[in-house]
Specification:
Elements: E1 22-23, E2 32-33, H1 38-45, H2 64-77, E3 82-87, H3 90-107, E4 117-126, H4 136-139, E5 143-152, H5 156-166, H6 172-184, E6 208-210, E7 232-235, H7 257-271, H8 283-295, E8 324-327, H9 330-350, H10 356-365, E9 381-384, H11 389-397, E10 402-405, H12 410-421, E11 432-436, H13 448-458, E12 461-465, E13 482-486, E14 500-504, H14 511-521, H15 528-537, H16 541-560, E15 573-577, H17 584-590, E16 611-616, H18 619-628, E17 632-633, E18 643-645, H19 647-652, H20 656-661, E19 668-672, H21 678-693
Parallel strand pairs: 4-6, 9-10, 9-11, 11-12, 12-13, 17-18
Antiparallel strand pairs: 1-2, 3-5, 4-5, 4-7, 8-14, 13-14, 15-16, 16-19, 18-19
Helix pairs in contact: 2-6, 3-5, 6-7, 8-15, 9-10, 9-11, 9-14, 10-14, 12-13, 16-21, 18-21
């Protein structure tokens, strides 16, 4: 356990949420969705729940507001037979274009490049003199830029893969801000005409800017329209050329401005009912607070302590917020860590000192900065252990590929060492190893000390995903060059915002060169409101984690004592996967010996985290157990509410045999334990286990 006061316990949160509704209920930007029955998972995977799904995990289910905005942009900009995806930066849009073309070229090498175009749509905000407005755009950037990637509709599946794997698409809150302004400026929905004539779709980095100027809005600002009746929103006109587009959107497909404002105000009330968000003018302060909190120099409320005088709770000297980089979600941080290391190696091959300027010049001159086309002069990466599904996809699809050691055991580490020792001197060498600590869903912890020794010996970078262990419980930065984490999970807890972080180890052997690449390429594309919500949610994260650790260990002990692994030969539970029982020696080696913070009176070391998986002996027992749980059930983890799912079906439905070969059974139920009352949780699990045992 951490040295923290345990949060007051509460009854089960969000029990029996109907199929397809958000978790938490009635929250517009929830990042989980209720799938309360085993059959719901099957129906979802086979496409039979499409109409019932009000929302879903944002990288897998494109938020309804984003779908609505995409439809508006298609009606305005698309040619017949085209579809689109929306991104917050030109770099992300170019990466999407490269991915679509690159994947299609791998499928049909002889075919000409696909026609994929990028349009920039710019929204500017102007604060009126007679209004005390709190408009998002007024307090963030001077301009909201929306980058629209237009492609043949038949390759939408490839675009969706990019959206899912990388997590760089626009935020649902950003989409709602754009929709609100469009609803106040309906003339801007008129089709633009032929954009194709001057779109340089064949050249990297090119796009067609578009917009309109001098158009006033009646309101604006996320959830603040009741305070901002006098805001004028102006669209910046860069240039426009015209081509045939789809017919104009019917008025019935859009809510009226008043209807939209009412809906948004209601949702904001629900989302802010448990705490006050920072005002928009403090958005930059929110980002600084987040970075300090992740660096370990700030735990609770924001403070004025300068970074160079703050003491970090992480066990690496000299770390400050300057070593922390924010991203829109955890997968975005993993994707950018992968690209950063590949670009670093490419820059080193060019020779000369690495600076931000030299890296920017090198990357800017590369024909393939997204590493989608090849041929490649860098070596493969390594994926060590069975990872979250999209991590492996990123390592396989971008760059020259990866070596996959899916069990993540000491025996796998022996094989990795043999591979490293046998690398031909005239071939590109392995450049990076990615692993989770511990892994999801088997909760295995790799031997990080040995991995670090191999990295130093063979000169590759180590990237560790600490999401499941979390940096309150474990300290992995001394073994890593880069540590990534999904802030969507336990750091936020509220299940209503996405976020990710990348922490650069300032003492790492590659720190200077990696920092040069990041300095050249990094852009904070996290939407301003998401940063504000994330800052609010994370103020008490240490206290929440203490309660979650306590609950999860109690539930794990209860289930483990009744499992076959513990000697109960007739049990329907085959095993409980939890760091306390799985590769414990490796977990304990990185488990905090000292408390992360001085909150509380009793010094306790880090806990074992809030995630566990139960493997049942039969599919029927697993299904009955899952169906009889009354806690919230759906995707995601690290939520304040206990959240369960049949992980293998949800994440690997199309590759169940492959997953089984990696010891990930289809009879597995993953549970992310929350902050609820411990006895209420035990009662729920006891009841569900009794039902499962009755299937014997």
């Amino acid at each position: 356990m951490v040295d923290a006061m345990i949060a007051p316990s509460v009854p089960l949160l969000y029990p029996n949420v109907p199929t397809g509704e958000s978790i938490p209920p009635n929250v517009s930007h929830a990042v989980s969705v209720s799938l309360p029955r085993w059959q719901d998972i099957v129906d979802y995977e086979e496409g039979r729940l499409t109409d019932a799904m009000q929302t879903g995990y944002p990288r897998f289910f494109i938020h309804r507001s984003i779908q609505k905005l995409a439809k508006m942009m298609c009606n305005k900009f698309a040619r017949p037979g085209e579809d689109c995806m929306l991104f917050p930066s030109s770099t992300n849009a170019s990466q999407c274009r490269d991915f679509i073309r690159g994947m299609e070229a791998r499928r049909e090498p002889a075919s000409p490049p696909l026609s994929v175009r990028i349009v920039r749509f710019s929204l500017m905000a102007q604060k009126s003199q007679d209004s005390m407005s709190d408009c998002v755009c007024t307090h963030s950037d001077s301009c909201i830029r929306l980058y629209i990637v237009l492609f043949p509709a038949q390759v939408f599946g490839l675009a969706k893969q990019f959206w899912q794997h990388t997590g760089v698409g626009i935020s649902s809150r950003m989409a709602e801000e754009c929709i609100r302004i469009l609803n106040h400026n309906e003339s801007l929905l008129t089709p633009c005409g032929d954009l194709g004539a001057k779109t340089l779709s064949g050249r990297r980095g090119s796009h067609t800017p578009c917009g309109a100027s001098g158009v006033s809005a009646r309101g604006g600002g996320f959830g603040r329209s009741r305070y901002s009746r006098g805001v004028d929103n102006l669209w910046a006109s860069d240039s426009a050329s015209s081509s045939p587009v789809r017919t104009e959107m019917s008025s019935s497909s859009m809510a009226t401005p008043d209807e939209e404002e009412l809906t948004i105000e209601q949702s904001v009330y629900v989302e802010e009912r448990f705490g006050r968000n920072l005002p928009f003018e403090l958005a930059k302060d929110a980002r600084v607070a987040l970075r300090r909190r992740i660096a370990g120099t700030l735990v609770g409320d924001m403070a004025d302590e300068p970074a160079d005088r703050a003491v970090s709770a992480r066990q690496v000297k000299g770390i400050t917020e300057e070593d922390v980089f924010l991203f829109p979600c955890g997968m975005s941080s993993i994707f950018h860590a992968h690209l950063t290391i590949m670009q670093e190696r490419a820059c080193l091959q060019r020779g000369g000192p690495l600076t931000a300027e030299s890296c920017a010049k090198t990357v800017g001159s590369m024909k393939d900065p997204s590493f989608m086309y090849g041929p490649y002069t860098i070596g493969k990466s390594v994926c060590f252990g069975f990872p979250y599904t999209d991590t492996l996809k990123v390592l396989q699809k971008w760059g020259p590929g990866c070596h996959f050691f899916g069990h993540g055991t000491d025996a796998d580490l022996d094989q990795l060492e043999q591979l490293l020792a046998s690398q031909p001197a005239d071939e590109p060498r392995i450049h990076a190893l990615f692993c989770e600590f511990p892994s999801n869903p088997l909760l295995r912890s790799p031997d990080l000390e040995r991995i670090r020794r191999l990295a130093d010996q063979y000169d590759f970078c180590v990237v560790i995903d600490e999401t499941v262990g979390n940096f309150v419980n474990v300290e992995v930065l001394p073994y890593a060059d880069i540590v990534v984490s999904s802030l969507t999970k336990v750091f936020s807890g509220e299940c209503n915002v996405m976020g990710g972080s990348l922490v650069l180890n300032p003492a790492g052997r590659h720190a200077a060169s990696l920092r040069a690449v990041l300095s050249a390429n990094y852009a904070d594309t996290q939407w301003v409101e998401d940063a504000i919500f994330l800052e609010r949610n994370s103020r008490e994260f240490v206290t929440r984690i203490a309660q979650i650790d306590h609950n999860a260990e109690t539930v794990s002990d209860f289930c483990h004592a009744r499992s076959r692994a513990a000697g109960c030969k007739d049990s329907m539970i085959q095993a409980v996967y939890y760091p306390k029982y799985i590769t414990r020696e490796h977990y304990d080696a990185c488990r905090r010996k000292q408390p992360y913070t001085s909150i509380g009176a009793t010094a306790r070391q880090g806990g074992y985290g809030g995630l566990l998986s139960l493997e049942f002996t039969t599919r029927e027992a697993a299904q009955v157990f899952y169906d009889n749980l009354t806690c919230a059930k759906g995707p995601s983890l690290g939520t304040n509410c206990t959240l369960a799912c049949p992980y293998t079906l949800l994440a690997h439905y199309a590759e169940l045999d492959w997953a089984a070969g990696m010891d990930v059974s289809t009879n597995l139920v993953r549970v992310s334990v929350g902050v609820e009352d411990t006895q209420a949780l035990l009662g729920d699990f006891a009841s569900a286990l009794a039902a499962a045992e009755a299937t014997r």
